[in-house]
Automatic annotation (TrEMBL):
Keyword Glycoprotein set for record: no
Name of the protein described by the UniProt record: Sigma-70 family RNA polymerase sigma factor
Protein family (similarity comment): Belongs to the sigma-70 factor family. ECF subfamily.
Signal sequence region: none
Species: Mesorhizobium cantuariense
InterPro entries for the chain: RNA_pol_sigma-70-like (IPR039425), RNA_pol_sigma-70_dom (IPR014284), RNA_pol_sigma70_r2 (IPR007627), RNA_pol_sigma70_r4_t2 (IPR013249), RNA_pol_sigma_r2 (IPR013325), RNA_pol_sigma_r3/r4-like (IPR013324), WH-like_DNA-bd_sf (IPR036388)
Length: 188
């Protein structure tokens, strides 16, 4: 029997025995059909190519268990369908169509708001730098380094009540400086 007349089932039997040439023959016979099927299922040629190749790897793995209850082409398409559905399920969260993407509200600040925030942040930093050392270091540790009141007390080796008092006066001075510079207390 020549390779051209050998049945798909006989080729699967050869694959089950480890015959790589049989896999190549089945690939040549069925790859285009599997590829087109997956491309229609997924809408992606790249995905179809990957899945079609995986189908033939799966053929190599599962050939010993093939029972011949269906045609080989049907079996291969079943494997392809399962792999395509699995991949689509995994990718579903990542995929979004253009209309859905356009409907997602843009929460980013406008260029005007970004500029206002940058200006206010720069002014605030200048005002912090102008504070007396005892107030500046408390603000710096709290807001720029995320330290709690008790942690600031430990770093500076001062009581927590002193940290709170310095924080109160530092905030008050910053608020007054912002107001005098024409900035409101909110952000931006």
């Amino acid at each position: 029997m020549t390779a051209a007349t050998e049945t798909d089932r006989a080729l699967v039997d050869r694959v089950a025995q480890g015959d790589r040439a049989a896999v190549r023959l089945l690939f040549m016979r069925h790859h285009a059909r599997v590829y087109r099927f997956v491309a229609r299922q997924t809408g992606s040629e790249m995905m179809a190519d990957d899945i079609a190749n995986e189908v033939f790897l799966e053929l190599w793995r599962q050939a010993p268990g093939f029972e011949g209850r269906s045609e080989v082409s049907t079996w291969l398409l079943g494997i392809a369908r399962f792999k395509a559905l699995s991949l689509l399920r995994k990718k579903k969260e990542d995929w979004i169509d253009d209309e859905a993407a356009a409907a997602v509200p843009d929460g980013a600040d406008t260029p005007e708001v970004v500029t206002m925030k940058e200006d206010k942040a720069a002014a605030l930093r200048r005002f912090v730098d102008a504070l007396p050392e005892e107030h500046r270091v408390v603000i710096d540790l709290a807001y720029y380094h995320g330290q709690s009141v008790s942690e600031i007390g430990a770093v500076l080796d001062i009581p927590v009540a002193t940290v709170k008092t310095r924080m109160f006066y530092a905030r008050k001075k910053l608020g007054e400086a912002l107001k005098a510079a024409g900035y409101d207390r909110g952000w931006p």
